[in-house]
Amino acid sequence: MEKMEILSSLRITKTVLAILSLVLLSNIRVQAQGILLLPSEKQSQRDLSTSKIGEGATTNAHDSILKFVNSSSFPNRETFPRGFFFGAGTSAPQIEGGSHEGGRGLGILDVVYSGDNKYVTKIEHYQRYKEDVQRLKHLGVNSYRFSISWNRVIPDGTLKGGVNKEGIEFYNNLINELLNNDIEPFVTILHFDYPLALQQNIGGFLNRSIVKHFKDYSELLFKTYGDRVKYWTTMNEPELQAMYNYMDNLGHLSTEDCATTKVCTEVYTVLHNLLISHATISKLYKSKFQTVQEGEIGIAISAKSFVPYSSKPQDVDAAQRLIEFQFGWVLEPLFKGDYPKIMRKLVGKRLPEFTKNEKEMLKGSTDFIGINYYFSLFVRHEPNRTKIPASDNFDALAVTEVLNVEGNTLGYYDQYGCSYVYPEGLYNFLLYINKKYKNPRIYITENGIPSFNIPNPLKDEHRTAYIAAHINATKAAINDGLNVGGYFAWAAFDTYDFDDGYSKHMGLYHINFDDSLKRIPTKTAKWYKKYLTLDSVH
Ligand SMILES: *[C@@H]1O[C@H](CO)[C@@H](O)[C@H](O)[C@H]1NC(C)=O
Ligand SMILES: *[C@@H]1O[C@H](CO)[C@@H](O)[C@H](O)[C@H]1NC(C)=O
Ligand SMILES: *[C@@H]1O[C@H](CO)[C@@H](O)[C@H](O)[C@H]1NC(C)=O
Ligand SMILES: *[C@@H]1O[C@H](CO)[C@@H](O)[C@H](O)[C@H]1NC(C)=O
């Protein structure tokens, strides 16, 4: 099946479900299989069926990139700055398993996937972390991005409910194992999943009082692991966590004007509370831990270049608005202390206000920006509410498009990954961030392509081409003077995708579910290793 991948979206669509399912108490799994194609994905499928991009284009594009990778013009590992991180990433809810082991409490996602045994066991990273660290070492990476499960260390989310020693020990062991193998731990504190009890008892991030619990949890992490962990990401893609959970309302959009619906107010409350949570723990880290522990604390966002659909001023303005609504929504408060003006204007009273103290706390609360980049999209002016939410925001009066007015795409369509490949979009996004926020520290925290439509997932040359082209784009930005400190391929291992289970084969290590979850390096893993260990790819 041809399927345009809206990666970031897909990875969390079910988070969305998780939260509403708690309210609806319905069988989400069934729903998920049926109607949970994101509307924008359907849109893309329609676009694709009429577009002329085919196998030839993909193959030619791959070949030319792979030739380039073999040439002396491809930037060598040693041309990157000293201390540059080359890593790979995962998240706890996508690989750990051991959901009912070692005293772990349930997370919101456990409810959604309780019927899916693969979600419950996942790739058994919880049991096999030692072996997995050896795989990472073999891969040649000098860093590994992973997330800690809040409900594994604090089962009901509150200190009052108690700390789980076994959970604490698991991450102690993982961190030590990484460091013993010269792999820098790059740790995410909140990656979509959080304690179910907090959702049930206080309404999760809709309730401002979650900030206190998030602070307690984070303080425990800084105290326990901060002597060894020097790179903290407070949260992963908070804007998507808010958008899909609320404004998109699981794709159950009413025809009602967004401004009058509950979810279109809640979306801003949730992100507001996420930002206050971020700033609160960042302040805590900076005031109590940073001088002694000498680490960095930042946030990771989902990135895209938004390109006007046409040269009409309306579309140019729409692209600019969506940039403010998606990226400015998170980054303007963190750098300047408040939401973008255009959001105040268009969202009005639904957009919460920060107090003076909060503004002060927010400003300068991030040492780095983590960038999760997969592909880019066009943006068209759309004054009417449409049924195309995805990363669009109704209040921005803009919708994303795969094709522009002339029928062109951004980059080439990769038939194996079922996605567009547009490294220039990463480069341009980096330049945008650099200019707007005055040369901040940046890490590429996620970048990758699925092996969806591929006979043998071990033969993933298309992924080699994809990753190489994005490493090349990263290097181009560094050559321009940007402060980029690392590149993390997504993902180290096949991860459980919140919509597609394991069918995307995102991992550099393929997991064989028919043979005791054996980890097998793909062609791309072998290429990455060669590249990283300077084992002459040329
Ligand atoms: C690149 O080099 C490798 C070995 O060094 C070779 O196997 C591969 O075929 C080359 N690819 C292209 C497209 O030239
Ligand atoms: C928010 O949390 C507090 C406890 O901290 C609780 O008393 C209150 O009912 C919660 N509000 C909602 C709307 O759930
Ligand atoms: C918006 O909706 C109105 C009324 O349904 C319609 O007349 C108008 O053409 C629509 N505008 C666009 C850009 O689709
Ligand atoms: C590699 O980066 C350079 C800019 O430094 C760019 O001109 C070139 O097109 C890139 N190549 C690929 C295959 O993306």
UniProtKB/TrEMBL annotation:
Example of a GO biological process term: carbohydrate metabolic process
The protein's Enzyme Commission number: 3.2.1.-
Highest taxon listed in the record's lineage: Eukaryota
A single MF term (Gene Ontology): beta-glucosidase activity
Protein family: Belongs to the glycosyl hydrolase 1 family.
Protein name: Glycoside hydrolase family 1 protein
Organism annotation: Medicago truncatula
Top-level EC class as recorded in UniProt: hydrolase
InterPro entries: GH, Glyco_hydro_1
Pfam families: Glyco_hydro_1
Keywords: Glycosidase, Hydrolase
Statement: the UniProt record of this protein carries the keyword Hydrolase: yes
SUPFAM superfamilies: (Trans)glycosidases
Gene transcribed to yield this protein: 11427530
Keyword Hydrolase annotated: yes
